[in-house]
Design brief:
single chain; mainly alpha; elongated
């Protein structure tokens, strides 16, 4: 099995460079599934590094993104999961 840091770095890259958080249907579980990461171990590692779990990191990225768009365009944007 790959080192947990490998999955952490990949998770970070998918958010920072690929903007996966913009897609409303993407959550921590789906990212872990896609990269074949041990979800609970990665979540614990993320918490130890950032003080929040994977889903909260994604929500935080979305919130920053929404505020940036609102500041830039003067409109309110919300990313909600598709049903």
């Amino acid at each position: 099995m790959k080192d947990i840091f490998h999955f952490y770095a990949l998770f970070e890259k998918l958010l920072d460079e690929e903007y996966l958080f913009v897609h409303p249907s993407v959550d921590f579980r789906s990212i872990c599934r896609a990269i074949r990461a041990p979800r609970r171990r990665l979540d614990k590692y993320i918490y130890s590094e950032l003080g929040m779990g994977g889903d909260e990191v994604i929500r935080t990225y979305r919130s920053w993104w929404e505020r940036g768009l609102q500041s830039k365009y003067g409109k309110s944007f919300r990313f909600t999961p598709a049903r």
